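HUMAN: I'm a chemist; might I ask for a sequence paired with its structure tokens?

ASSISTANT:
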Amino acid sequence: MAFLQQRFSFLPSGLSPHSDPALPSLVVVTIMVRLLSLLALAVSAFTYTTANVLPRALPTPVNAATAKTYLAALTVEAESNSPTYKRDYFKHWITISGACNTRETVLTRDGGSVVVGSNCAATSGNWVSPYDNIATTLASDLDIDHVVPLKEAWVSGARTWTNATREAFANDLTRPQLIAVTDSLNQAKGDKDPAEWMPPLASYKCTYVRAWIQVKYYYKLSVDSAEKTALTNYLASC
């Protein structure tokens, strides 16, 4: 209460917030202005502490009808790993804003009540991996998955891209390409396409294939025949 008394020290002598309801209207207005100011400061502090985080996730992929149109437009050809893929060809986890790189930005975007340190690393938060519906409060439990893996992009056409285009692909926050998932699942996926691996959570498979197709279409990447068959079959259930 001492804090409140200090905050209302501007009142005329003998008056307090609990005085007679007949307080002069000007004083009442002044009290309200001060209270609103304090509330604004509190909201501002909370917003800073939580790094402006609201629960969000992967950018919404195109709908199934559009995905079917995109898939039909993709070139079907065998994959080529010549020249041989190297992860270093795709510069990733670049600085996005201030001290925040791509990984940290995705963790903040995909989590709830995320708190970050001065280096933008998440120190606490709540995440649910959409691939398996597993929840965690530890950022270290999560990998940032490239929906279309870097090597998959390489063998599907990225080997002919400029370094700048490969960097943009590896850090794309606009297309449904980056998502925070359980680390062991990301490692199990590796560079597999949907003919070889799919998220175990059945309810997410449609979202996943729509995202995959949208990314491949945007970047003009090819699909192999087994990949196209798998994508076609999954879309039929969307």
Notes: The chain has two domains: 2-48, 54-236. DSSP finds nine helices and seven strands in the chain. Strands lie at 95-97, 100-101, 112-116, 122-129, 134-136, 142-146, 178-182. The first strand starts at residue 95 and ends at 97.
